[in-house]
Design goal:
The chain has 305 residues and is an alpha/beta fold. The chain is built from 9 helices and 14 strands. The protein has a 9-stranded mixed β-sheet, sandwiched between helices.
C-alpha cells in the first residue's frame, strides 16, 4: 500500500493545503488516496468547506467532476464557491486519470462500479472525519453530483450504481451513457447537452429511456451550444442542486408528488401543472420542474441575461 508522509509519520491519507490551479483562498484542503486500478498511483481530492453559517446544520457534499483527465482543483471556481457558501455545501473535486482506450473499453474512472466510486466514498468519509476535529459536521450518507463531459460519465453511472447514496445529480454532455434502470426511480437527475455537440443524440436518447421508465429526470438542450460550459448551464445546474440540497419543509418526502410546474422541451417554456397549456404538452416533451427557481433557470437561453 502506498503511503504519504506527514512530518515523517506514515499516513494513509494526506491532508494539506491545496491552492494550485484555483484562486488563492478558494480551496482549503486535499486528500490523496491510492487509485485501486491497474495504473496505481493516487487520486487527489481537492475540497472546500463553506464560510461559517449561523445555524448548526450538518453540511452536505457536492461532488464536482471535471472533463477528461481534468484537475479537480480547477472545478472549485469562484462561481461554485459562492454557490456553496449560500447553500452550505462542501465542494469535493477529484483529479482522475485514464486513457481513451481504457474509457472506450468500459474501464477506468468513467465506471465507478469498478473502483473510482469506492475511492470517492472513502475520500468523502475521510474529509468528514478530518473536519470533525474542527467541529464541522458533514453529512456523508447522500451526496450531490455535477459532472461535465467525462464528469457526466461518472455522474450518471454513480447514480445508477449507488442510487441510495445520491441526493441528486446533474450530468452535462457525456459521449455515451449506460442504460437507466428503475433502481434510479428516487434519484432526481438533470440531463443536459448542447445541440451543436456531437454528444447530443446519445444524451437525448439516454433521457428518453429514463423518461420511459418514469424516472424523475429533467432534460435541457441548448441551441447554438457545443461542448462547452456556459453561464446558462451553470445557473440551471445550481438551481437544481440547491433545490435538492435543501428541499422545502413542506415538500413531500416521496418523489411521487406532482411537481408544481411542467416544462415543454419543444419550447423550453413552463406552465402550472394544472393549466390548460400544461395539459397540451405531449408526454415525450413534458418534464416536471420542482420549483419556480428551477423553472426560471431551466427556461433561460443563451443571451437572455
Amino acid at each position: 500500500m502506498r503511503v504519504n508522509l506527514i512530518l515523517g509519520t506514515a499516513a494513509f491519507v494526506c491532508l494539506r493545503p491545496a491552492l494550485i490551479g484555483a484562486p488563492i483562498g478558494l480551496l482549503n484542503g486535499a486528500v490523496s488516496l491510492p487509485a485501486t486500478n491497474a495504473h496505481g498511483g493516487e487520486v487527489r481530492f481537492s475540497y472546500r468547506t463553506p464560510a461559517p453559517a449561523s445555524d448548526a446544520k450538518a453540511l452536505r457534499v457536492l461532488l464536482l467532476i471535471p472533463g477528461y483527465n481534468g484537475e479537480g482543483n480547477a472545478m472549485i471556481s469562484e462561481a461554485w464557491s459562492e454557490f456553496a457558501d449560500r447553500e452550505g455545501l462542501v465542494l469535493v473535486a477529484p483529479t482522475f486519470k485514464t486513457t481513451k482506450d481504457e474509457a472506450h473499453s468500459c474501464k477506468g474512472y468513467y465506471y465507478p462500479a469498478q473502483w473510482s466510486g469506492e475511492v470517492v466514498l472513502e475520500a468523502v468519509r475521510r474529509i468528514a472525519d478530518a473536519k470533525k476535529e474542527n467541529a464541522v459536521e458533514i453529512e456523508t450518507e447522500k451526496i450531490l453530483i455535477f459532472g461535465f463531459s467525462a464528469g457526466a460519465h461518472f455522474a450518471h453511472r454513480f447514480a445508477l450504481w449507488k442510487p441510495d447514496r445520491v441526493r441528486a445529480f446533474a450530468a452535462y454532455s457525456a459521449a455515451w451513457w449506460d442504460g437507466p434502470t428503475v433502481a434510479a426511480r428516487n434519484v432526481p437527475g438533470l440531463i443536459m447537452c448542447g445541440e451543436a455537440d456531437g454528444r447530443y443524440e446519445a444524451s437525448r436518447e439516454f433521457m428518453a429511456k429514463g423518461q420511459a421508465l418514469g424516472l424523475p429526470w429533467i432534460w435541457r438542450g441548448y441551441r447554438h451550444t457545443g461542448h462547452e460550459m456556459t453561464p446558462e448551464v451553470l445557473r440551471v445546474a445550481q438551481a437544481f442542486l440547491a433545490h435538492y440540497a435543501h428541499p422545502p419543509a413542506t415538500q413531500p418526502s416521496t418523489l411521487n408528488a406532482r411537481a408544481p410546474l411542467i416544462g415543454d422541451i419543444q419550447s423550453y417554456r413552463f406552465y402550472p401543472a394544472d393549466s390548460a397549456e400544461a395539459a397540451l404538452i405531449p408526454g415525450e416533451a413534458r418534464v416536471e420542474l420542482p420549483s419556480p427557481a428551477v423553472a426560471k433557470a431551466w427556461s433561460e437561453e443563451r443571451g437572455d441575461l
